[in-house]
Design brief:
Elements: E1 13-19, E2 34-35, E3 38-39, H1 40-49, E4 54-60, H2 64-70, E5 77-80, H3 88-102, E6 108-113, H4 121-134, E7 138-143, E8 146-154, H5 158-162, H6 170-176, E9 181-185, H7 196-203
Parallel strand pairs: 1-4, 1-6, 4-5, 7-9
Antiparallel strand pairs: 2-3, 6-8, 7-8
């Protein structure tokens, strides 16, 4: 992890990019698929960097050496999840633990994945704006008649995120605390890359 303990880690929002999976359905690391003269992961990371008053954490796991080389920036915070095979929850926990280490007073975090090619900084910003406007503790992206990533959690949910197990993810808390959720439209958020066909459709 390349890290300077400077004022940016006192920012109130952490964007946690979950990039630990082994892309089993694709057969090669989806994080490194070429996209926009870059890669899916780098595209997500660079959009996250544009968000003001936020810092970004990337959780790696499978293929971590290749992925760390891809994100060779001075301002990247990389944290390795050695238990990535146990499920999504382990990466969420690793990311939240890292943000609490960097900034115990962090106000909220946004969980994001690296295979939504149409992610932009405005998607992240809209989540934060709607949470602040409505005073809701969870702001979830809405697409295809469901909620999904990216999703913002107020700090009051950090302990609950740390208690997730196995394949449990953000959806568990979104469903459990539905009265505290505001939905934020993410156009084309339903498009993600899981298979070669998905990728071919994206670049064709």
């Amino acid at each position: 992890m390349k890290l300077n303990m400077d004022k940016k880690f006192r920012n109130k929002t952490a964007i946690i990019i979950l990039a630990a999976g082994n892309s089993s359905r694709l057969g090669r690391p989806k994080q490194l698929l070429k996209y926009k003269e870059s890669t899916l992961l780098k595209n997500t990371f660079l959009e996250a960097l544009k968000v003001e008053n936020a810092f970004t954490i990337v959780v790696t796991g499978s293929n971590n050496n290749l992925i760390e080389k891809e994100l060779n920036f001075d301002n990247v915070v990389l944290t390795f999840n050695s238990e990535w095979q146990t499920g999504m929850s382990s990466s969420i926990i690793k990311g939240v633990e890292q943000l609490l280490l960097l900034n115990p007073n962090c106000e909220n975090c946004i969980l994001a994945v690296c295979d939504q090619p149409f992610i932009t900084s405005s998607v992240f910003e809209n989540l934060r704006k709607e949470s602040e406007r409505t005073k809701k503790g969870i702001a979830a992206s809405a697409y295809s008649e469901t909620f999904g990533t990216p999703v913002l959690f107020h700090k009051k949910y950090f302990e609950k995120l740390l208690r997730l197990k196995g394949q449990e993810g953000a959806k568990k808390l979104i469903n459990k605390y539905a009265e505290d959720v505001v939905s934020v439209v993410f156009e084309n958020g339903n498009i993600d890359i899981d298979t070669e066909e998905d990728y071919k459709n994206l670049i064709s």
